[in-house]
Amino acid sequence: MKQNMPHIAFIGLGNMGAPMAVNLLKQGYRVSVADVNAEAVSALVAQGAYHGGTPHQAAEGADAVITMLPDGRQVKAVYLGTEGGKGILDVLSAGALAVDCSTIAADDARLVAAEAVKRGIAFADAPVSGGTAGAAAATLSFMVGAETADFERVLPLLRAMGRNVFHAGGCGAGQTAKICNNMLLGILMTGTAEAIALGVRSGLDAAVLSDIMAKSSGGNWVLNVYNPYPGAMENVPAANAYRNGFSSRLMLKDLRLAAGLSESAGLETPMGEQARQMYEHFAADPQNGSLDFSAVLGEYLPQVLPRR
């Protein structure tokens, strides 16, 4: 561990948060961690992190806090508190930096930012793209909403965890960019799954068809790095019974956020809406909801899903 490195509190050690925290440790940062999953905390402590206890305890005395949480409700609860209780903004010192890497509504990000500013705390919304593989390899893309001076402060932290860091605009802009990105991702995944299913049902080998499309005009990110058909690509959730990825439940959450953003912008997004409806139907089954979002292929080819 390097001397005089900032103390970072990392809250939220799920499939994305845990490897992100590990990459901060690799860069020499002092990291205290907190999560409701005791095993996830123990795994980080074994790699050199400090057991932060509760989010409040982890944040006390920290130079910066990074959160990676499932939704806006939890983000607001952690930062602002619930039912009159204190949030971590109440224990961070003036001048500290708060970075939320969750994917939430832009309005929720702006609400937390406004409360942070009242306390002299810099805030940035910095949702990520790149999946669990990108989190592990420190190749994530960050879409940042922050004031320019705060963006400059957050850059070293984000570069320790990712490859591409974009300043999308002021607070909330990072979330808007992420919601647009994930709406497109949902469209690409459902469309790619549909095309592969059509080929398989018509007698083609999924891997051969995927290779043809990837090198032709249908090529896209899903075909290149995240194929949804089991056996067509190694080291993706489809090769691991759709486990340990970006859950269908979370994709549905993001597509719902996109629907809300579309409504507030007064713009119809029919392809995004079709993708949302697909995930609404697929994730209505709780077991499906916990599977990686590429498992939506099972809407067309049920036999690819894990046996129950």
From TrEMBL:
Pathway: Amino-acid degradation; L-valine degradation. Residues 172-297 form the 3-hydroxyisobutyrate dehydrogenase-like NAD-binding domain. Pfam families: NAD_binding_11, NAD_binding_2. Residues 8-169 form the 6-phosphogluconate dehydrogenase NADP-binding domain. GO terms for molecular function: 3-hydroxyisobutyrate dehydrogenase activity; NAD binding; NADP binding. InterPro entries: 3-OH-isobutyrate_DH-rel_CS, 6-PGluconate_DH-like_C_sf, 6PGD_dom2, 6PGDH_NADP-bd, HIBADH, HIBADH-like_NADP-bd, HIBADH-related, NAD(P)-bd_dom_sf. Keywords: Branched-chain amino acid catabolism, NAD, Oxidoreductase. SUPFAM superfamilies: 6-phosphogluconate dehydrogenase C-terminal domain-like, NAD(P)-binding Rossmann-fold domains. GO terms for biological process: branched-chain amino acid catabolic process. The keyword Glycoprotein does not apply. PROSITE patterns: 3_HYDROXYISOBUT_DH. It catalyses: 3-hydroxy-2-methylpropanoate + NAD(+) = 2-methyl-3-oxopropanoate + NADH + H(+). Its EC number is 1.1.1.31. The active site is at 178. Belongs to the HIBADH-related family. This is 3-hydroxyisobutyrate dehydrogenase. It comes from Neisseria leonii. The gene is mmsB.
